[in-house]
Every structure is written in C-alpha cells, then in structure tokens.
Amino acid sequence: MRVLILGGDGYLGWPTAMHFSARGDEVLVVDNFAKRRWELEEGIDPLLPVSNLHSRVKAWREISGKDIELRVGDLLNHRFVYKVFEDFQPEAVIHYGEQPSAPYSMQSRETAVYSQHNNVIGNLNVLFAMQSAAPDSHLIKLGTMGEYGTPNIDIEEGWLEVEHNGRKDRMLYPKKPGSFYHLSKVHDSANIEFTCRIWGLRATDLNQGVVYGISTDETDMAPELRTSFHYDHVFGTVLNRFLVQAATDEPLTVYGNGSQTRGFLNIRDTIQCVELAADTPADRGDFRIFNQFTEQFSVKQLADMVQATAKRAGVDARIENTPNPRVEQEDHYYNAKHTGLLELGLKPHLLDDAALDGMFAEVQANCDRVNADLLPPTIAWARNEK
Ligand code: USQ
C-alpha cells in the first residue's frame, strides 16, 4: 500500500512511518518541522535528543534496509499539498500534521488563532488535494476524545441516534470540547464529514484518548530511531509527566482534585489502531468514527498508580493537588464507547504493573536530562492577557 504520513517527524508520526515501512508498504512522510519551532518558542526539549528527520530516515535505511521517502513542506501551502498527492498517489493518508497541545492553544490570542488556522486550513487543503488528485484514497485522521468533552450522557462512537418530536435521525454526536486545540479537531471532523457526504470521499476519524509510552517495536531497534517524549507542561501528556515527576523527586501535579477522567492508550496501540483502520478502509462516502483508547482512568488513579510504581523501585513519590490551571469539570460522569477498533481486532496493551515498571525504569535512566523548570503548569485557561 502507498501510505502518506502527514506529520511524520512527530511523537506518533515517526513510529507509524517505520511500522508501515517495516511491513513492506511504500511510505512517504511529510513535515514542516513546526513542532520543533514551538519547542524553541517555549524553551522545551524532549526527554531524549531526537535526531532530525533526514538522519532518522537514513538510520532506518541502514538498520532495516527499507526506504522511507521524505518531503519537507507545509500543509498550509496548498500547491505543495496538491503536488504531494499528484506525485505519490496515496492509498492511505494518515494525518497527524497538526498542532497537538491544548495548553499551547490556550496561551494567547495568537496561539489560539494559529492552532485553529494551522489545523483547520491544513486539513481542508488535504481534503481538496484528495478530491483533486486521489479521490479513492482513504483519509485516516487523528481526532481526539476531547472533541466530546465530558457530557452527562454516554459518549457514542461519533454518531448519535436522535429522536425529536417523534422523528429520528443519525447526527454527529454533539461536541463540548475543552480548549481551542480540541475545538480545531471538532471543526476538522465537521469538514471531513461534509466532504464524505458531498464529494464521496472516504475517511476514518480516530478520536484518540491520551497517549502514553516511549517505545514501539521499531523505536526499540536502535537509539537513532527513537521518538520524541515530552514531559513539559505544554506538550507532555499526563502519565508521561507523572512518570518523569516521580523519577526526579518532583511532586506529581494532579490538577484540582484529580477526579477528571479520560480515555488512555499505549503508543503501541496508536500504531495498531491506525494499521487496522488502514487495512479495512471506510467505504466511499462513509465518514467512519472510532473512539481510540483502551482504558479509562481518573488523573488521581494515574497518580496513585505512578506512586505505587515508584515505590516498587524504592522511590517515594509525592502527589500534590495543584490548583487546576484549566477550566474543566473534575467530578463528572464518563462512559465512552470504544468497541469499533476491538471489533476490527485491536489487542490492547494495558497499563499493568509491568508496563508502568518498564516506562519508569526508562525514564529513571535518563532523569539527569530533565529540566524541572518545565514541569509546573504556567498556562491558565481563564486568563488570556497576552
Ligand atoms: N493533568 C493533570 N496534571 C498534569 C497534566 C494534566 O492533572 O500535570 C490533567 C488535565 O487537567 C486533564 C488530563 O490530565 O484533565 C489530561 O491532560 P493531558 O495534558 O494529558 O491531555 P490533553 O490536554 O487532553 O491532550 C492530550 C494530547 C492531545 C490529545 C488529547 C486526547 O496532548 O493531542 O488530543 O490528549 S484527549 O484528552 O482524550 O482529548
């Protein structure tokens, strides 16, 4: 299969590229290295140095004997996007190429507008290029569970059967996102649904939960193939942050009372889910939606699990309830369906003691590289003065 990966330099994009390449697919990665610029803006480095994409593609060739093709360009440049589609004629388009951080988007007017402009227009350019140059290709779009927010009813997989005044229809599930970033994905979903319905494109929207983990089969092959792992308050996701905080004797920053609940998954399952979606494409005209997570945890539960993990390694980790910098519900109902990917064959890697011990050991081995200044949250949702 010809697989186009947008955002191929990222935490998830790079391991995905290697995975499809390893199984013999023809892979083209596209990136404009915007994430590296955002890191520079914020003074942030990943836990371990990640070499540039050209070097990683070269290392992959030397180690695996397989080629990953690379094009550097911006999804906001529609001519570039059209050219990529015309030249490569993808069968699967895996779209990770967006600004992924809720805190980044909530920092200022500038970063909010940038996040939505970058994500929404980039995605529109992809849809137009698909329609023009590869209308039979299958878009696999990384959405987020945060599109739904925390409604007081069960969360379905993207669609809701509604009965109103005696009539019934199937509608996109109502969205109550919690940041300008999450909102950008809501806008993307609406645009993709529209182009499937009107142009007959085929798409799968993967509403992904919070990803954790540092290793996949391919990243483990050599240090030069590793992917980025962030623990800072802007790009680090909660479990990755707690592991680093515990390993460096910094308090685990549970925001508010920690009752807020989310869906989580291991980075290995991100790769597995994307592969399952690619291997069973949506039909023409179908906007297929999966909720992509394997387990639900509250933030407090995660902190307790990390504290227990640290204890097994002889480390006393402190949990600190930090005033919540976000505006989000803490005590809420949460029951999100996630059967679609299991039905396609997903075999989850669950967050058991062995998984936690493995991640903790890896983080501990590198904790001298942690910059503790990047741990406390400094971006508040309700104040936007910049
Ligand atoms: N949290 C803490 N302490 C921390 C960091 C986070 O209590 O030190 C809490 C947050 O308040 C939130 C939860 O943990 O309630 C998750 O926060 P997060 O930063 O791990 O994840 P989030 O901002 O929701 O975004 C991440 C990814 C994003 C993806 C999303 C999936 O950065 O790209 O879309 O997870 S989801 O959360 O399901 O929308």
Outline the structure in words.
- With 386 residues, this protein is α/β, with parallel strands linked by helices.
- It has a single domain, classed as 3-Layer(aba) Sandwich (Rossmann fold), CATH 3.40.50.
- The chain is built from twelve helices and 14 strands.
- Helix 1 (13-22) crosses helix 9 (267-279), helix 6 (109-133) packs parallel to helix 7 (180-199) and helix 10 packs across helix 12 (353-365).
- Bound molecules: sulfoquinovose-uridine-C1,5'-diphosphate.
- The site of sulfoquinovose-uridine-C1,5'-diphosphate has 22 residues, from helix 8, strand 10 and strand 11.
Low-confidence stretches: none
Query: Total strand count, please?
Result: 14
Mind telling me which CATH architecture this is? 3-Layer(aba) Sandwich
Going by helix content, strand content and strand pairing, the class is alpha/beta
* CATH-assigned fold name: Rossmann fold
Helix content: 25-40%
Radius of gyration: 20 Å
The count of domains is: 1
- Provide a count of the helices: 12
CATH class: Alpha Beta
> N- to C-terminal separation?
46 Å
Shape: globular
Order of helices and strands: EHEHHEHEHHEEEHEEHEEHEEHEHH
Q: Give the name of the CATH superfamily.
A: NAD(P)-binding Rossmann-like Domain
On the 0 to 100 scale, the average pLDDT is 97
Please tag this protein with its features.
single chain, 386 residues, alpha/beta, Rossmann fold, seven-stranded parallel β-sheet, three-stranded mixed β-sheet, 12 helices, 14 strands, 38% helix, 19% strand, globular, binds sulfoquinovose-uridine-C1,5'-diphosphate
